Every structure is written in C-alpha cells, then in structure tokens.
Amino acid sequence: MLNTIFIPENRGLGNALNEAINNCSNSLIARMDSDDVSTKDRFSLQLEKFMCTPDLDVVGGNISEFIGSETNITGIRKVPETDWEIKRYVKRRCPLNHVSVMFKKSSVQKAGGYLDWYCNEDYYLWIRMIEKGFKFTNIQKCLVNVRVGDSMSGRRGGYRYFESERGIQKYMYTHGMISHPRYLYNTFTRYVGEIMLSDSLRTQAFRLLRKPYLEINNANINPRTVSHEEEYPPFSVAISVYGKDDAKWFDRAMESIVVEQTVKPNEIVLVVDGPITESIQVVIDKYTKLCNS
Questions:
Q1: What pLDDT, on the 0 to 100 scale, is given for residue 227?
Q2: d(CA 239, CA 32)
Q3: How far apart are CA 138 and CA 212, in angstroms?
Q4: Distance separating alpha carbons of residues 144 and 34, to the nearest angstrom
Q5: How far is C-alpha 159 from the chain's CA centre?
Q6: Distance from C-alpha of 105 to C-alpha of 270, rounded to nearest angstrom
Q7: Mean pLDDT, to the nearest integer, of 52-78?
Q8: Which residue in 55, 58, 106, 213 has a CA-CA distance of 20 to 30 Å to 198?
Q9: Residues in Cβ contact with 86 at an 8 Å cutoff, skipping those fewer than 6 apart
Q10: Cα–Cα distances in angstroms (integers) from residue 251 to residues 62, 110, 163, 256, 279, in the given order
C-alpha cells in the first residue's frame, strides 16, 4: 500500500519524516531517500537482525556512493558495527548512514522523534536515543547505493553548516557525552573542513575518507532462507519528496523498494513536502496504481 501525504508548503526533512512516521501503521520503519537505490536484500537483512536480536532499536548499514551511472561507484562509507562501537564513534562523527536505517517506531518516538537541526536531524536523533539507552547495530554490507556529486560537498560546508555541527558537539559536551578537549578538537577539525576548505578540496577530502568498494562489499552476509515471506514481520518505508527532486531518480528509488526487494514493504508512506513538478506527480501516480491495485 502507498499512502501519500501532501504538505502545502515545504517544512524540511525532519518535519516531513515525523509526519511519515506518525502515519506509519507498522512498528518497524525503514528510511529511504527519494534519489537513492536500495540493494535487493536490504530489507531482508535488516528484518533478520531484528528477528535474531529483538532488543535492537535501530539497524543501519554501509552505503556505496556513485556518480552518474549506478555502477560508477566512487567509494564506501563504512560505519561501526556493534552497539558499543557505535556509541564510541558518535563522539567523533555521525555513526549511522541515515538513508540506510530501519528502526522501531516506538523507540524513535520515545526519543522525541526528528527535531529541527539544520542538516543534522539524524545525528541529533541518534545522540538522544543513545542518551536513553537504545540499542544499535550496523550491518557490514552496503544496503543503499547513494547518488552523490560535487554539490553534496558544497552542502556540507559553509558557516551555517559549521554552526549546526558545532551545536551538535556543544550538546554532547554539555550533556557529558564528550570531554572538553574532544569538543575543542571536533570543533576545530570541522572549522577547517567546512569553513577553510573550498568545495573542490572538500570533495577530494570526502573521497579520501571513503573506502574502496571491493575492499568492503565482499562480506558474505545472506538473509536466512524462509519458505514464506509472511515469516518476516510487517514493516513500513518512510520517504519524503519535494519539488527540486529529479523525477527520474525518484522513479528509480521507488523501483528499488517496490519492485526489486526480496522482501517487500507492507506499506510505503510518502510525504510530499511542498509543491512538486508534474513529472514527480506522474511517478507518484505510477506507484500508487502499482502498490494499491
């Protein structure tokens, strides 16, 4: 089932995702961006983690990044695997790939849901969930192929982005999650990367931090073999789309979760965040008919 919610004016990603979460009917929710491609076994792998470890609250994974063609993979963002490693890593940078996560609806809501924090709604959410003792893991396989370009590095720089990052570090310091030296170090390195570096140099720096694709994504991780799909718990997918999104990319993202998954979602909640183009509406109509027929 595809449930589409229209918001007349753009309210931002955090507000759109809260709207989606509040309208999801299942206890497990997967996060999905409108221009990325989920791997075919993404949901089965994540559901298997929840089935094997019922006390988990968030399951994420690695992501691959591509430019242009989906096969033109430029690198991997590898994240720590265990709950302990994630809670240590959060003191340096965001420990989960937001576009890859599946989480328990109740756990996110108990932490207050997504709150407005420029470009860091997810980082702020994970920090608050960690404060409340929720449990995390990251699957050591690429779950999502993420579309990137030089514009992404540009969005990760500038004074407004730096102030957002510094605010996150200050929150962790004042809440006793990091020491004063760690706060100063984190703030200084972000100032260098986000204020002092040009967009082109920042792009190069991001690429240097990524891992080679073949080095990371050869992990032999497979979901268990099931005789009936119903053995997996039902789950929803939360997506936000807005007017500046590319309709072709949005179509590909929807195809990866509606058509290609080995275990398909029972429900997709799509929040249309503000006015959209006719081409995006065509994609919405296409998958509404496909999902609701």
A1: 43
A2: 5
A3: 18
A4: 12
A5: 24
A6: 16
A7: 93
A8: 213
A9: 79, 80, 95, 96, 136, 137, 138
A10: 23, 33, 34, 9, 10
- Sign for the CA dihedral angle at 130, 24, 122, 140 comes to positive
Query: What is the tens place of the pLDDT at every residue in 136-157?
Result: 999 999 999 999 865 555 456 6
Tell me the C-alpha distance between 10 and 241, whole Å.
10
pTM for the full model?
Answer: 0.89
Q: What is the pLDDT of residues 232-247, one digit of tens each?
A: 999 999 999 998 999 9
Please list the residues that pair with 66 across neighbouring strands: 73, 147
What is residue 25's three-state secondary structure? coil
Among 38-47, 81-90, 157-166, 280-289, the range scoring the smallest mean pLDDT is 157-166
DSSP symbol at 223 = P
30: its two tokens: 């997967």
Amino acid at 121: E
Number of residues that this document lists for the chain: 293
Residue type, 200: S
Q: Which residue has the tokens 């932490």?
A: 111
